[in-house]
Each structure stands twice: as C-alpha cells, then as structure tokens.
Amino acid sequence: MPQSADRVLDHALLFREPEYQEMFERKREAFECPASSAEVEAQTEYSKSWEYRDKNLAREALVINPAKACQPLGAVFAAAGFEGTMSFVHGSQGCVAYYRSHLARHFKEPASAVSSSMTEDAAVFGGLNNMVDGLANTYSLYAPKMIAVSTTCMAEVIGDDLHAFIETAKQKGSVPKEFDVPFAHTPAFVGSHVEGYDNMVKGVLDYFWKDKEREPGETINIIPGFDGFCVGNNRELKRLLDLMGVSYTLLPDASDQYDTPSDGEFRMYFGGTTLGDTTAALNAKATLSLQSYCTRKTLDFAAEKGQQTLSFHYPLGVGATDELLLKIAELGGVSIPDAITLERGRLVDAMADSQSLLHGKRYAIYGDPDFVLGMARFIMETGGEPVHCLATNGTKQWAEEMEQLLASSPFGAEGKVWSGKDLWHLRSLLFTEPVDLLIGNSYGKYLERDTGTPLVRLNFPIFDRHHHHRFPLWGYQGGLRLLTSVLDKIFDKLDQDTSAAGQDISFDLTR
Amino acid sequence: MSLDNENPTAFNEKLIADVLSAYPDKFAKRRRKHLTVAKPPTDANADSSEGEVLSECDVKSNVKSIPGVMTIRGCAYAGSKGVVWGPVKDMVHISHGPVGCGQYSWSQRRNYYTGTTGIDSFVTMQFTSDFQERDIVFGGDKKLGKIIDEIDTLFPLSRGLTVQSECPIGLIGDDIEAVAKKKSKDIGKTIVPVRCEGFRGVSQSLGHHIANDAIRDWVLDKKEVAHEPGPYDVNVIGDYNIGGDGWASRLLLEEIGLQVIANWSGDATLAEIERAPKAKMNLIHCYRSMNYICRHMEEKHGVAWMEYNFFGPTQIAASLRAIAKHFGPEIEEKAEQVIAKYQPLVDAIVAKYRPRLEGKTVMLYVGGLRPRHMITAYDDLGLKIVGTGYEFGHSDDYQRTGHYVREGTLIYDDVTGYELESFIERIRPDLVGSGIKEKYPVQKMGIPFRQMHSWDYSGPYHGYDGFAIFARDMDLAINNPVWSLFDPPWREKEKPVLQAAE
Questions:
Q1: pLDDT tens digits along A182-241
Q2: Is A182 within 8 Å of A175 (Cβ atoms)?
C-alpha cells in the first residue's frame, strides 16, 4: 500500500508506485486496444522528421494548439482597466465562464463579468429581452459605474444590434438614461483577442468622446494593449512617467484590478482609468499605443479626433525603451531625468556582465504580434538570434514588419517568420531546426517536454507559474527582470547538463 | 462563524430574504425558487432503497439562468467536449467553430491518462477549425472534411474523431452529420458529430445528455466487439479521472475481484466505450452527466446500473459492500477484506487530521455529484456542511441530496455571484469548496478555499488513497497561517459588512 498518513502521496508521486504502474499495464494490455509500442515509437520518431514537418506545414484547415484566443477575451480584459466597470458579454453564457476562468487562472485574481445568458429562444427571436433584463440585473446587483458590453459569436451570427438594444434597454428603464453603457461588437470569428481589445477600447472612447469638441491640451494618452504583465508593466510605466514629470493618462489600466490586496475585503472593482479621465483623454495632445496590433482602430479613431498618434511594439530592452522615452520626452517637452539614465546604465551593465552567455544563443519566440516583435528586438540586443518568430494571430503586415526587424541586425540573419502558424507547427520547427531557448507562455510546456527546449514564460497566459506578472518587463528595470529570466534558464540548463554524478566536469561554482 | 447554531433555519431564511432584496422584483421572485433551507423529511420523499432520508431540499432547478447576474454555469459545449468526450484519449476532439472555446478549455480539467501525447493520445491538445468570417458566411462543412483528412495524415494512430459543435455551427445550418458519415467511410475510422452548441439548453447539463446520445447513436453497436464476457465484468461510468480519481477507484474495484472492462471517460480509449455494453453492470460515479447512457444500456443491452460513492471511508465501505452484493459471496468476502485492509490507513488519517478539522464548517458549490457525494467525506473528518448547491443539477439531484444534508442547511441552485458572496460573507464558513471563478473572491474575504472541480491541482480524492490527500488538503487550506496575516496590526479590525447594492 503506497499511501500513508505520515507521508501523504498525491498524484505527483502516487501513480509512480508499482501498484499503479502495474494496474496501468494491465488496463493497457487487456482493455485499451492500444497502438503497439513499435507503432508509437515509429510515429514518435517520424513526427520529428522533415517529412512530417512538410506535411504539418501544408495544413490548410486544421489548427492545433494555437497561440491566440478570441475577441471577447480581449474586450473583457480591456474593460477591466476602466474604473468601476462590469463587462457584460451579450450571447451564450458559457463563453463568459471561460473568459473569467482564463483570466483568473493567469492573474490568480477574481475576474468578474456577466453574460446575457442567451439560449435557443434568443437564437430564434434575438437577444433583446436578455439585454433589457440583463442590464437591469447587473446594475442592481453589482452597482457598477459603467457597463461595457461586448458580444460572443452567437450574438454576432444572429446579428444582434448592440446600439439599438442598449437604447431600448435604457428606454425600458434597465439602467438610467445617463448611465454609461459603451459597447463593442467582438465577433470571435474575426481576428483574435488583440482585436477584441482594440474594439472595446475604441468602443469606450467613441462613447465618451462622441459629440464632444476637442480642446487640445498637453496630456499624453498611453494605451498599453492586451498584456498579461499589465500589473507589473503599467506600474513601472507610470513610475517612469512620473519621474519624467509628464502629464499622462493610461487608457485603460488594469494593474490594480488584477492585483487586489488580501485584507478581508473582496473588491469587485479596484483602480482603473477614471471615467472622467477617459472623457478628458479626448483633449490629449497625442495617443501612444504600446502594442500597435492591439490598437489599430483605436489609433485611427484618435487620429480622426485630431490627436497625434504613434505606436510601438511592446517595447522591451534598451533600444525600444530609449525610443519610447525619447518620444514621450519630446511630446511632453521634458528631458529624461538622471535617475532614469542611471537605470538605463544599470541594465546595460547587467547585459555586459552576462554577454558571453547570451551571445549566439538561438531562440524560438511565440505570442501576440507585438510581443514577438519586442522580444526579438531585445534578444538581438543581447547578441541572441531569433530563429523562429511565430504569431498565430500575426497578419501579413506583421510578417513584413518582423522581416524588416530581423533584416536590421546581423543577429536576425537566420530568423524565420511564421505568421498564422500554431504550436504544433512550432513543434516540427523545433525538431528540425532546434534552438537553445523557447520564449512563450504556459502552453509551451508541451513543446519543452517533447523537444527538450527550455521554456521561458514571458507572455500571457501563464497558468503554471505564480506571480511573474506582478513584475515588470517594461522599462530598464523590466529589462533586468527579462534578462534574469532568460539567464536563469540558461544557467539551470547548464547545471542540469553538467551535473551527472561521478563526473565533475563543467559543474562550475562560478559562472 | 456567525451562523446562528441554535436556529440555522431561521438564520438562513432571513439571509435568503436579505439577499433577494437586491434584485429587481421580477427576478427576486424567480431566484426565490432556487434558494431554500433543508427541511425535515416528509413521508412522501422517504426513499428506502437509497438509505435514510435526512432532509428535503427541493428547489427549482435546470431552468434558464437569469441574464446579467453572473451565473457560474457553463454551456453545452463545456458539458460535451469539456466533460464527457474530452477525456477519451485515443480520439481527436475537434472544437468546431471559432478558436476561443477550445482554447479556454484546453488542458483545464486535469483528466489524467497514460499514453504519448500527439502520437497515440490527444487529451491535452487543442484541435480547432478556427472559424473565420468566410466559414460563417459560406459554411464550414468543406473545411471540416479537410480537417478530418489532415488529422488522419498527421495522427495516423488516432482511433477516431469527434466534432464538438460550437455556437455558430447550429446557427449557420452546417450538416456535420453528413460530413461525419462520408469522412468516416473515407478514412475508415469512427467519427462522431456532437450537436453541443453552447446556446442549447440552460447549462453544461444538456451537453452531457447530447454527448451521451452521441455515444448511443454513433459508437455503440457499430462494430463487432471481441470480448469474452466474465461474471465480474463492470464498467465505471462518469469518472473522468480528474487528478487520477478513476485510477484510485479502479484499484479498489480490482482488489475486490471485479474486472473493469471500460472506464468512461477518464483515461478511456474508444475500444473501452465500444466494449461497455458487454459488462454485467454499470457503476455510476457521476450520475448527472452519464445516467442517460446507462439507462440506454439497461434497456437495450440489459446492463444493470447502480450509483456508488468513493469519497471518504464511510461511503467507500458502504459502496464496496453495495457493489459486492451484486456479485455473490466471494466478492463480498473480498470487499470485507479490502475494507479491513485499509482500516488502519483510515484510522491513521482520521487520527491525524480530525483533531485539526473538528467542528469546522464548509460551504460547497460545485457540479455533478459533488455537492452531495462529498458531504460524508467531510463528516468523516469532523467538518460540517452548512450550505451546498449545484451549478446544473436537476430535481433528481436535489432529491438525492436529502440523503446527505441535515435540516437547516442552506441550499442554492445556479447560485449567482452576488448570492454566493453574500451567503459566504454572512455565514463565514471555515472553508468554501467551489471553482476557479469563486476562489479568489472568497480568499480575499479571508476564508480558506479549495477548488472542488480540479481538486485545486491536487488529487486524486477518490478511494482510500484519495481520502488521505483530501484530508491533507482540507487541513492545509484551513490551517495555513496566511489567514491570520490579513489584518495589519495598526488597523482596528472592522466587522465585515454585507455589501448591498443600492
């Protein structure tokens, strides 16, 4: 009997015990009718081959292990960055359970959102009643300052008109007429969560800015984009902006919403961009996006309103941070303070200290389009070579930008761009053209297991490690964290590879 | 705990009334029917075959959720792909429609299995048709056909496929059944189309039913199954092997001399599903999600069925005896030996953990069978259930609940976020067991929490091996020192107040 009260074995060890191993064998032999070991072995080997890779890359319809989610997730994330805002997703209710779970698993935080719970009758007659009743209930139970409406694909397929529905609901008294109910259509069959983010932010701005005259001021709007590291990143960004003394609005800012304290009180709403600031953001001098592909429509809209617009690609490392800060300094008419210059110097110092370990390392990077651009740029700064750059939700334009970036550095010479490909494609790529490190999110653990490529988790979602998102990747200090994460992985691998007992070669104390 | 121990019924009745006052009238009335306090049993509901009836907990159930209230429920797709079909390991399950559904449910239910992922097993992979606008406009049948071919090329050792429909499939009028029939001939493998679009029904529950029907219509009796029937052949039905639960159960069933010829659907292969009608008996773990197919097998194949409960030593022993009874004295004798064999382990676990847990109160809100089946396991450790409810239960679930809960227990069906938080805040139990969406709000209130869908990344909790882990986990949740750190010493402790919306 493997179990005992003194030393309780859970799943991690229990099933390694002979009682269970023998049972697995009995089950397999007698009842599973499995493929033979020889077949499994042959197919396993074949799946590592160039031939399999060619078949795999020739896929036209099937998507396996994609690195993207659907639009409404981005909309719910975006809405969470506005003060007192409840996301209301119009359509089937299961979707909302999924978004909430997904966000909660990453942030280890509450993720509140409601659904209009449409079912078969709504599929036939439309979801107007669900909107009317739903808004009334949400308003009564959850006392939000704003309800941000988005849609699941069900509501989109049947063609529900959010604008008309919300107007009707207001007329029927679901919420007061003056209560803020911005909305965005977020069809899951168009784009991915990054477009959902864009649509929701634009929906909110459109709502607060419409019919208002812009009186140009000095403030700078900054849109962070969909970011699993928003907690650490937004705070770091605000610290830098405060040091620089510029006037800014983060639009939106979920850093407090997804990092509430444990003190006995559950805060359904916490922090976020105030509705007043959101309205006033119309008067900003400029709107900067930190993730170009998360804000394409929003930036167009800001430009239409007369604002100067500019976008970045998830700025990481020295050069990208330099550019961002210089631009902000220029817009704000300030100079970059010595304190920040010092931070920059410290990051460069750290990179110089470790350059021998980083130079020539080969990487596969996957994730959202801006993240991959930003990360590849940083990797090249360290002397690393981005070999596979993959974004399932990458577009043709992204691929072109990616190619340009790789062409800008000798370290990009071997880089290949994989737009619209998934993590099963990446598996073939890693087997046939191996790299030293894989940079992505938790889903990469299957690639790490299968191909033996060490995984650095630096992108949403991270389910199987805790608290990383609480630390910034942005700014020079964020760069230090980034650098350390990559280095730790390299060192751990080196130690692992040299720690065979009985051999004391290369298992160095100082590295 | 602030629950009035003298008269929990009155306390809970008042609590329900207070909570409902936040709703618009129309919906307060509707929600009223889903909330109750367990009453003394009446003669009418005394059901001797199921054992003693402790209470009556009748509420309205299995009806549509109210819009805008933050229901905790999922959808039919979640019930089919996420629960019933997803764990079948040697089949590829296509999430047919836009990318999200498959993405959010990817690898989240911890259905353990043996096998080589991506080669002969596929549970922790996400296969999707990733619908684009053109698929909505022109239909996805052609694309589905191509996907099936691509799967067959890249995963030749897969034994079959299922097509798990997402919302748009039913709305745009795709004919996935026709595609399944045609492609099944082409590739010579089982292909199961499942109409589990998320808008169907009111919760996961209809998805279970649809998935069961798909097994009936597309798998059973479709092939010759070579199996020499034995007198002790049983199937375990409705154990999804979460954290290895099914394995901890199987071990015991084998020990008492039974032969488990199929486990549905945790760690299952298609062959096991096909073989199931040859068994003597279906042992149902999760009645809610798999009773349908058992009733079918009873009617069509003459396979008897019974429910059992492997949570905690009291229920395990009772279930082993009840199961053994059907198989004659030899098996009964072995069952007694097994119970006796594990008794020292049970005694040691109880001796170690009961003193640390005695008298603590627990609220549950989960799905399937757990809102009732786990109650005795808590009893075994001296914990007391003060509230329980089902995400997607039916009236037969609530009827069965009367065998487990005592009078005065708060009962909530399809509870809303607002209700659950309010109940927890006022009752202040020592532990809450529910899902990931509930975990963090509850912990922020300073109340220990365990996810009771995924076992909070622990498990197994079934069987004697599982009971040890269950006891350890409840202890580490309740008795962790972090809960005493919430109040900064420079702040006077404020009394928690119920946050009522105006």
A1: 999 999 999 999 999 999 999 999 999 999 999 999 999 999 999 999 999 999 999 999
A2: no
Asked if pLDDT for residue B352 goes beyond 80, the answer is: yes
Tell me: cis bond preceding A2? Omega within 30 of 0 counts. Answer: no
Q: What is the pLDDT of residues A370-416, one digit of tens each?
A: 999 999 999 999 999 999 999 999 999 999 999 999 999 999 999 99
> What does the alpha-carbon distance between residue A165 and residue A88 come to, in Å, rounded to a whole number?
13
The structural architecture, per CATH, of the domain B77-218 is 3-Layer(aba) Sandwich (3.40)
Omega prior to B355 cis, within 30 of 0:
no
Q: Residue B196, SS3? A: coil
Which chain B residue shows the shortest CA-CA distance from A92? B199
How many CB pairs (< 8 A) connect A and B? 358
Which active-site residues of B does the annotation give? 75, 78, 109, 208
Distance from CA of A262 to the nearest CA of B (A): 5
Give the pTM.
Answer: 0.97
Question: Quick one: closest CA in A to B167, which residue?
Answer: A154
- Alpha carbon distance B371, B202 (integer Å): 19
Domain range B8-62+358-457, CATH class? alpha beta
CB contact under 8 A, B167 and A450: no
B325 vs B332: CA distance, rounded Å: 6
Distance from CA of B401 to the nearest CA of A (A): 25
Predicted confidence (pLDDT) per residue in B425-483, tens digit: 999 999 999 999 999 999 999 999 999 999 999 999 999 999 999 999 999 999 999 99
What's the pLDDT at B502? 41
Residues of A in contact with B187 (CB under 8 A): none
| Active-site annotation holder among A70, A89, A95, A153 | A153
Domains B8-62+358-457 and B77-218 share a fold: yes
Contact B247 A20 (CB under 8 A): yes
| Domain assignments of chain B as residue spans, ordered by start | 8-62+358-457, 77-218, 233-340
Which residues in chain B touch residue A97, judged by CB atoms under 8 angstroms apart?
71-75, 78, 437
Return the bridge partners of B364, or none.
B433
pLDDT at B499 over 70: no
Helices (H), B21-83: 25-32, 76-77
- Interface touch B75/A92, C-beta < 8 Å: yes
CATH H-level, domain B233-340: superfamily: Nitrogenase molybdenum iron protein domain (3.40.50.1980)
Task: List the single residue in B101, B114, B440 with the smallest CB-CB distance to A98.
Answer: B101
ipTM passes above 0.90: yes
Token pair for A41: 């072995």
**Which residues of chain A are within 8 Å of residue B116 when distances are taken between CB atoms?**
40, 44
